[in-house]
Structure formats: C-alpha cells, structure tokens
Amino acid sequence: MLTGSTPTGNVRAASSQSGDTFGPQASAGGEAATIIFSENQPPDLSNRVSHLTAWTITPSRMGLIRRFTFPSFGTAWRFMSTVAEECKAKRHHPSWHNLYNQVTVEWTTHKPLGLSIKDVEMAEFCDRIAEENGLKVPTQSAGRTNSSTPASN
C-alpha cells in the first residue's frame, strides 16, 4: 500500500492493484506511484492527470516531468519561448532544462506543496504546444520512450 493525498488534500491509502492510484506512470520500482496533491484541488484533478500519459510522476510524487525531443534546436527554443509566455501570464513557472533539441520540463507547486491544477494545466499546454511545433518521433519522458505523431504544419 502507498499513502498519498486526494486532490482535496486528504491523506488516504491507495492500492496499486485496486485502480485507486493516481498518475500517468508507474514509479521506477514498477509499482504504481501515488501523487501527493496540493490542498484544495478540484475533484477531477486525478482524472486529468491520468490523461497525461507521456508524463512521469517525479520521485517526490509531488510533480510531473517530461522530456520533449524536437527536430532542431530552433524548434525546441520556439517551444520554450511559447511556454515561457504562458508561464508569465499564468504566474506559474517550471523547472526545465534544454540540451540542443531536447527540453525537459518539470511541474510542481511549492505553495501549497504538491501537484496542483496549475501544474496539470501547464502540462496540458506543453503537450499542445509541442505537437504544434512538431515533436520528433519517438519522444522521451524522463526514463522511458513514447511514440508520438508529429503535428502537421
């Protein structure tokens, strides 16, 4: 059994076999990871997180991480610039890293601590913008490979 928080911030136990765990990816040990949500989150947050299949739960269980691979440095930079503008508008910023055509993005909330609706909305935004900019196939999440179809331009 893993313990975690529901989107409303209440601690609960989750069994990896019962389907009660939240999140898009299993932890490195192969068991389902339970996300620790920030307090006072919308009740549908865990459902929205489950649709972020290209993202991985961070080791702290309080965030999401994904590595995007683009055809070129210029495309990766364009992606980062677009996301940066949205971050400025939303007043929510990631921890991220760029290495040539790869961009690794991590979303978590520091106040209140845990995964929040802001993180999920920005992860969804990143996915849309990455598809619009043309992901290189396959893309990599932190530690695993995904298939992704490139967006048509």
Automatic annotation (TrEMBL):
Q: Which reaction does it catalyse?
A: (4aS,6R)-4a-hydroxy-L-erythro-5,6,7,8-tetrahydrobiopterin = (6R)-L-erythro-6,7-dihydrobiopterin + H2O
**Residue ranges, compositional bias (Polar residues):** 1-20
Instruction: Identify the stretch(es) annotated as Disordered.
Output: 1-27
The protein's superkingdom reads: Eukaryota
Pfam families per record: Pterin_4a
Under Gene3D superfamilies, the record lists: Transcriptional coactivator/pterin dehydratase
EC number, as in UniProt: 4.2.1.96
For molecular function, the Gene Ontology terms on record are:
4-alpha-hydroxytetrahydrobiopterin dehydratase activity
Keyword Transferase listed? The answer is no
One GO BP annotation here?
Answer: tetrahydrobiopterin biosynthetic process
Question: How far does the signal peptide extend, from start to end residue?
Answer: none
Top-level EC class, please?
Answer: lyase
The entry's keywords: Lyase
Q: Tell me which family the UniProt entry assigns to this protein.
A: Belongs to the pterin-4-alpha-carbinolamine dehydratase family.
Protein name as annotated: 4a-hydroxytetrahydrobiopterin dehydratase
Q: Which organism is it from?
A: Lophiostoma macrostomum CBS 122681
